[in-house]
Design a protein that fits this description.
5-stranded parallel β-sheet; 3 domains; Rossmann fold; two-stranded antiparallel ribbon; alpha/beta; 14 helices; 293 residues
Length: 293
């Protein structure tokens, strides 16, 4: 399958799928498909890394398979595990029928088969013969040992199951890894990927995103939202506003029929864009807002 014809094709199809890609994003997204290499997206939370993978899925009609990473993720949740309860029932049934002469070796061969295999996202994506986008989300949240599980998938697009052998991809998935850079990923993982850093967009592009995502948004309000969010991102906040929160804020202003984002309006609606009390306090002080009563 040819994922995209060119970077220009990427930009056009992603925009039709609701994602505005700049030149660097469109080029790297194209190359990930053309070279069949995983794409590692790194940058602050909320800048559109996960959404890019979803947009590729929508634009190409491919199934999205998502592995959400977290501390404590292990092979059983990422690759596969055996259905132990079902295996135990089969063993008990075999023991009950032991008079038929079935020995343990035969029972062992019987219970380690496809019937008892529970596939998790990595193995699911490898085994699909339809176009698939594999999203490995927030890979930096896992323990470093988990990266070892990824290497075989990222290099050879295969998974080794000791009891069944090696399962190679019937059709290589389009792989996207995202990282908020909370820890440094291993060089082994990075070496297998194309790399793209996604940062907050410039003012013109963020305004364009708002107007695409929030139908009916007045140009003046859009400009005020973008300018105010940019000022907030310059503050020392616990969590700077993401693009998604800019969109939420714009929708909030429409819902409240606010047509001028003055200091009082900002103070009234800060909960749509800042999610920590310390950030509210700092923004109120630094931006000289009137506290909402």
């Amino acid at each position: 399958m040819t994922w995209f014809e060119s970077p220009t094709d990427v930009a056009a199809r992603l925009e039709a799928a609701g994602y505005l890609a700049d030149a660097a994003t469109a080029t790297t997204t194209f190359l990930a498909g053309a070279l069949e290499k995983p794409l590692l997206l790194e940058g602050p939370a909320g800048v559109g890394k996960t959404e890019l993978a979803k947009a590729v899925s929508r634009a190409t009609g491919a199934e999205l398979v998502r592995l959400q990473c977290y501390e404590g993720l292990d092979e059983a949740r990422a690759l596969y595990e055996w259905n132990y309860k079902k295996q135990l029932l089969r063993i008990q049934a075999a023991n009950a029928a032991s008079s038929s002469g079935q020995d343990w070796n035969a029972t062992h061969d019987d219970i380690f088969t496809e019937e008892f295999l529970l596939t998790r996202p990595l193995l699911t994506a490898i085994r699909r013969d339809e176009p698939t986008v594999l999203l490995i989300d927030e890979v930096d949240k896992t323990d470093i040992e988990v990266e070892g599980l990824l290497l075989e998938v990222l290099s050879d697009f295969q998974v080794t199951i000791p009891e069944l052998g090696t399962v190679a991809a019937l059709r290589r998935p389009y792989v996207v890894l995202t990282s908020n850079a909370s820890r440094e990923l291993s060089e082994a993982v990075k070496r297998r990927c194309l790399y793209l850093h996604i940062d907050y967009p410039d003012a013109a592009r963020e305004r364009q995103i708002l107007q695409q995502q929030v139908p009916g948004l007045d140009d003046r309000i859009a400009q005020q939202v973008v300018e105010t969010v940019a000022r907030m991102r310059e503050l020392e906040l616990k969590k700077a506003p993401s693009i998604a929160e800019s969109v939420d804020w714009a929708r909030t202003l429409i819902a409240l029929e606010i047509r001028d984002l003055d200091a009082a309006a900002i103070a009234r609606t800060l909960g749509a864009v800042l999610k920590h009390q310390s950030d509210h306090d700092r923004a109120t002080k630094e931006l000289k807002l009137n506290r909402a009563g």
